[in-house]
Amino acid sequence: MENQCTPEEAETVLKWLMMEEYSQEQKDLINRLFSNRPGISQPQASVLQQRLQKGLENTLQKIEEKENSGSKLKKLPWLRYAAILLAVVGSGTFLLLQQKGSSKPLTIAGNIEQTKQIKTDLAPGGNKAVLTLGDGSTIVLDDAKNGALTQQGNTKVFKLNGKLTYDPANTKNDQIFYNTISTPRGGQYQIELPDGSQVWLNAFSSLRFPTAFTGKERRVEITGEVYFEVAKNPNMPFKVTIGTPSENASEIEVLGTRFNIMAYKDEAAVNTTLLEGSVKINQDSKAVLLKPGQQARLQDKSIKIIDHVDTEEAIAWKNGYFQFTSASLQQVMRQLARWYDVDISYEGNVPERRFGGKISRDNNASEVLKVLELSKVKFRIEDKKIIVTP
Prior knowledge:
alpha+beta; 390 residues; 7 helices; Jelly Rolls; four-stranded antiparallel sheet
């Protein structure tokens, strides 16, 4: 862990980690190392990874051979965990709460090096979206080239460096068209609205908006998950209309702020998390005002305010991470389903597990699943499906 070993010493450590008779000592050592130590720095990780690469591949091959031969390794989860620990690189961290009530969560620092790829895998999502214009025609943005895409009225539409932008010229007496940008499962996209507001769409989301903002307010409609950085204009309030899982419409009113709305229909609640500024949430006859660091959870026509939420967790997807705090297995798998464009099915009596921490969304699905498997849950990938088993 301090980057002091020679390649020969590293190979010795790896061989020792394969010996079942020392499983308890291995477990104690790993717990001790990771309970009080920070993650490995990037320069150390790079050198360490190079030194251990060859030995690690040999170790993983031995584990796979024993599994394929039918040999029962009672301590296999610890052997696999020990091997993965030596493959850590990068800057993320991921915590595994082995089971509900666990007193010492285990920590893996970094992203998993893809040293042993399973045959069937799923690539991560990327910048994918479809723009539906006011006349009903569509533009597939991931196929479109950078530059001018179209013009509606006096507003020109551009794609620049993977971002959709709107440049209204003279909006006075201009005909207003409504556009919709939609991301599929496995897609995300960024757009700059005609007023300069910046918007990010997560997978399986949509945003409906006018080609120019006129009148006394700026109004848009969303589904799925969307992050906003609203341009300030006190004279023209910005309003977002969303639909709850039960189709009860609600509205968010802002002046100038940064906030995230998660409103997927397969989630139990609609979560609005405020990072900066102020927003007012209107639901039927109820209205609540959010302060930075608060989250409003709208469920069954009631609004619950949560103080001191982890705002970084709420927008982790926008920054390229999966991040959880005591999330259930089902919550984790719903995020994976949307990002990797897969269906999820469960076989047998899958135990209840809670997960916390973060890992890069740039990883293939198999790399994320390897981390989750350390909590005594198994996964297999079949075509466009992830099957979860005990």
